[in-house]
Amino acid sequence: MAFQPTPADISVIITAASASRTSNAEPTFVTERRVTPSWTLMQLKGKLETMTGVPPGCQTLKIKVPGRNDQWMEGDDRRIEEWGLMKGVEIEVHDSRPPSMRPNFTDLSSVEKYELPSETYESLPNSVLAWKKNQKLGRFDPNALSPEEALRKQVEKDQNDVVTKGIAVSKRAIILPSSPPHIRRGTVRFVGPVPSIPITGPGRELERQGEEIPAELQPIWVGIELDEPTGKNDGSVGGKRYFECLEKRGAFVKPDKIEVGDFPPLDLEDDLDDLMEEI
């Protein structure tokens, strides 16, 4: 009996056809693998399942040989060498299942997400929190203010800015920083705490702990009715209204970002003058 050499493996390109029906749709999977020409078509499909996730019984394969017309590979018992394998050949895997029956690995909405318990995180020796503890940074600084003290200091600063800048309801004001032609001006409509705006800075630790912030520790905000629709609200935040104005005419700004003064509303003549200057 004559010796029969084992056919050498051939490197081919494996692609998974896109679910899109457009002719220029990009494949969802591309890789290069070595295959043995003596494999049957069913053996090849078994190998392709581990790459594409498509069960062998749902695979329809198309072979693309350079210089020849594309062919559908049919006959699970046939050897794949019958289709003229050579380097550079592409085998395209088509999934015959309806789209609704195919698993969607990109949809993470149904995936249960793991949340590390805070107790476990605080016990880790190599976390950012542990590093801050070792370096005595942030709230671990023995000289750092407590969240209550930090909030109280912020409120005192806000109140001082309101008094020294003369901020009061009905006064005209601009929002800083402002420089021509981008000057946001309007009328002060509200001065006081806005509990529906999340607290930032050191005081946010109190909100994270679920504690109710006392009224005397609520930061001060200035509500502005803007002359132009460059705001973010209509005078309400978090479902609570603090003043009345049109949509996108309202803005809430910290007192240090406000300057009150003689800032008359822009009128049509001002706009025409600016336009003539640009021309």
TrEMBL record:
Domain CAP-Gly, residue spans: 220-254
UniProt GO molecular function: microtubule plus-end binding
Domain of life, source organism: Eukaryota
Coiled coil location: none
GO cellular component: cell cortex; microtubule plus-end; nucleus
PANTHER family: DYNACTIN 1-RELATED MICROTUBULE-BINDING, TUBULIN-FOLDING COFACTOR B
Stated family: Belongs to the TBCB family.
Protein name, entry field: CAP-Gly domain-containing protein
Taxonomic lineage of the native organism: Eukaryota, Fungi, Dikarya, Ascomycota, Pezizomycotina
